[in-house]
Amino acid sequence: MKRNIVIATLTAATLATGGTVAAFASGNDEATATQRQADTSAQVAADRDDDSADDRDDDASEDRTAVSGGKVSAAEAIAAALKHTPGTALSADLDDDGADAWEVSVVKGDGTEYDVRIAPDSGKVLGAQRDTDDDRDADDRAELTAVKGAHTDAREAALAAAAKGTVTEVGLDDERGTVVWTADTVKDGRHSEWTVALDSGKVTQDRDDDGDDA
After folding, report:
1. How far is CA 37 from CA 27, 28, 154, 187, in A?
2. How buried is 75 (Cβ within 10 angstroms: 0-12 exposed, 13-18 middle, 19+ buried)?
3. Which among 122, 22, 132 has a CA at the least distance from the CA of 71?
4. Which H or E element spans position 28?
5. pTM over 0.85
6. Region Disordered: which residues (predicted)?
C-alpha cells in the first residue's frame, strides 16, 4: 500500500514538472516567433534602405560617366555622325546603360532614318543602323520640316546649351505649337533642362524643369 502511494506521488510530481517544462517550452516558442518576426522586419527595412542606396549610387555613377567618361561632346558626336551619314540630325544622347556611346539620329535626303553610334572617348563611328520604323506621325513630319528650314541645327543647339553645363542629350519637342530643340545638361551634379530656339538659338530654361539653374 505504501509502495503504491510512493509511486503515485512520484508520477504526479513528474507530470507536474513535465507540465511546467512544457509551459516554459511553449513560452519560449512564442518568444522565438516574436523575435524572428522582429528580425525579419528589420531585415526587410535594411534591404529597402540598401536598394535605395544602390539606386542613388547607380544614378550618381551614370552622372559621373556622362560628365567625365566621355571626351567627345554632343556637338562633336553630331558632327562625326553627319560626316559618316550625311543628312539632318534630329537627336543625340548618351546610352542610359553606362554611356558607352553617343546615339545620333540622322534622317537622310531620301527620308530614311539611321541611328549612328559614336564612341564617347574617341569620336569613332561604331556603326550605323537603319531605323525600319518609318511610320512618322503628323508631329514627327512637322518637326522634321521645321528643322530643315531652321537657322539652328542640332549641333549648334548642343553648342549653345553647353554654356549651361555638360550636354547629355539633345532632341526636338513641341512647346505649345512651336518646335524647339531641347537639351539636358549636368553641372555640379545637378540636372537641368533647356530649350533652344530654332530661329535664334536662344537658350532658356525649360518651364517644366524644377531646377534652380538660370
Report:
1. 16, 14, 58, 46
2. buried
3. 122
4. helix 2-64
5. no
6. 30-72
Half-sphere exposure of 109 (CA within 13 A, CB side): 1
160-208 pLDDT, tens digit per residue, is 999 999 999 999 998 888 899 999 999 999 999 999 999 999 999 986 5
Residue 80: exposure state from Cβ atoms within 10 A (0-12, 13-18, ≥19): buried
What type of residue is 84? H
Three-state DSSP class for 136? coil
Average pLDDT, the chain: 74
Q: List CB contacts of 160: < 8 A, sequence separation 6 or more.
A: 152, 183, 196, 201, 202, 203
Topology of domain 70-205, CATH: Nuclear Transport Factor 2; Chain: A, (3.10.450)
Q: What is the CA radius of gyration of the chain?
A: 33
Residue of 134, 105, 132 lying closest to 118 (CA atoms): 105
Which grid coordinates belong to 83? 560626316
Closest C-alpha among 194, 39, 12 to residue 4: 12
Structure-block grid coordinates of residue 61: 555613377
Model pLDDT for residues 37-63, shown as the tens digit of each residue: 555 555 544 555 555 444 444 444 444
Of 133, 54, 144, 127, residue with least CA distance to 84: 127
